[in-house]
Amino acid sequence: FEERAGRRVRLIKEAELWEASFVPFGMNPEAQVLSVKSDIRLFEKALRERMGLSQKEAAAVASLGYTALRRDGGSEATAIVDELKEISTLFTHHFGASQ
């Protein structure tokens, strides 16, 4: 706990986050996202492990997006890009999230 503006508040300094979802109207109107850590290596690892991309393909997607993979990866990469786009479209349609 910590004293802030004359009130005793709980401060979470570190947490292991398994899932997160940002919504327009949260349950606690005072809740804030103060920072988001990003590690491109973790993203690349997920692309390799979950999508079966090579190290080179994962690095291309992580740094340059779908276009680089399609441009440099040939027909196999095109199939992967199409699958990623389909997943994105399904997610957008199902959850109403914008891309």
UniProtKB/TrEMBL annotation:
GO terms for molecular function: peptidase activity. It comes from the Bacteria. One of its GO terms (biological process) is proteolysis. Keywords: Hydrolase, Protease. This is HK97 family phage prohead protease.
